[in-house]
Design a protein that fits this description.
By secondary structure, the chain is of the alpha/beta class. The chain has eight helices and seven strands. The chain has a single domain, classed as Rossmann fold (3-Layer(aba) Sandwich), CATH 3.40.50.
């Protein structure tokens, strides 16, 4: 690479490092789509160091994470690994919403568990953080999807629900990252996310355990991703300027409790219907 493009890379890296916005990039995506490898790539490229598998990625994005784990990129920017979705069921999307609303601690993630009780427990604890001068990071949702996957109708429906909910919470759409850029499917998947309303969509080729030879082109992709995330987060922060953080948090927590309560009621209704149907088959009357 000539000196001019190299200087551009260094300037972009410096700009990201010097930004003071308190931002947390919260990753979401199906298991094995490259979330942990994206973290490894970001740390390697931004700090301009040798590749290390600090996030515990499987070989060639095999999918190993089962918890949320923070990784510090700069003094004000963190990126949070996450357990991969399995089927993006309503419970999983509700849990993702709780994470975006700052109603979950770092640690083990259980997509199947009824977490209404956890939301109610976290509410007063998290509220206290808004009483201090140092407010929590602005959480920017980042949705990771592999370009090696075949897009289907179920993907579209589930992704749209997550994108819509994230927008309602933050006021901005999630940043979409298509990994496995070298796969021929990546452009069509990029278009599908555009049809779902996602505004910021990027294609990258992660560094992995099997392929971590640094190139300027791939470094550029990673740095551009981080730069887009910071700019989107700043936009979200500016949109919330003038709002009382405590009032906003109470409103978001109330919405989360309603979401999880509605899901619980629907679950009980379905189980009750199944019970009635089973009783009818046994020849008993049901009121």
């Amino acid at each position: 690479m000539s000196k001019e493009p190299q200087r551009n890379l260094e300037a972009l890296r410096a700009r990201i490092k010097e930004d003071g916005s308190a931002v947390a990039l919260q990753l979401f995506g199906m298991t094995g789509h490259g979330k942990s490898s994206l973290i490894n790539s970001c740390v390697c490229v931004l700090k301009n160091i040798q590749y290390h598998n600090i996030a515990g990625a499987g070989r060639s994005d095999g999918g190993m994470s089962n918890k949320r784990e923070e990784h510090k990129l700069t003094k004000s920017l963190i990126i949070i690994d996450n357990r991969g979705f399995r089927k993006m069921m309503p419970q999983e999307i509700a849990e993702a919403c709780a994470q975006i609303r700052s109603l979950r601690d770092i640690g083990k993630v259980d997509w199947d568990k009824d977490n209404l009780e956890e939301t109610i427990r976290q509410f007063p604890l998290k509220y206290q953080t808004y009483q201090t001068e140092q407010h929590p990071h602005f959480i920017l949702p980042v949705l990771v999807y592999s370009g090696a996957q075949t897009w289907n109708a179920n993907d579209a429906e589930c992704m749209e629900k997550l994108i819509t909910n994230a927008y309602r919470i933050t006021g901005i759409h999630p940043v979409i990252v298509i990994t496995n850029r070298d796969n021929r499917n990546h452009n069509s998947i990029l278009e599908r996310f555009g049809e779902l309303g996602a505004m910021r969509r990027l294609c990258i080729q992660n560094y992995t355990e099997n392929n971590h030879q640094r190139t300027d082109e791939r470094d550029q992709q990673i740095l551009e991703f981080l730069d887009v995330c910071i700019r989107e987060a700043r936009r979200g922060i500016n949109m919330q300027e003038g709002e009382d953080p405590q009032t906003r948090f109470v409103s978001q927590a109330s919405e989360q409790i309603k979401l999880e309560s509605d899901q619980l009621r629907e679950q009980f209704r379905q189980e009750n219907d199944k019970l009635k149907e089973a009783i009818k088959k046994e020849g008993c009357s049901v009121s």
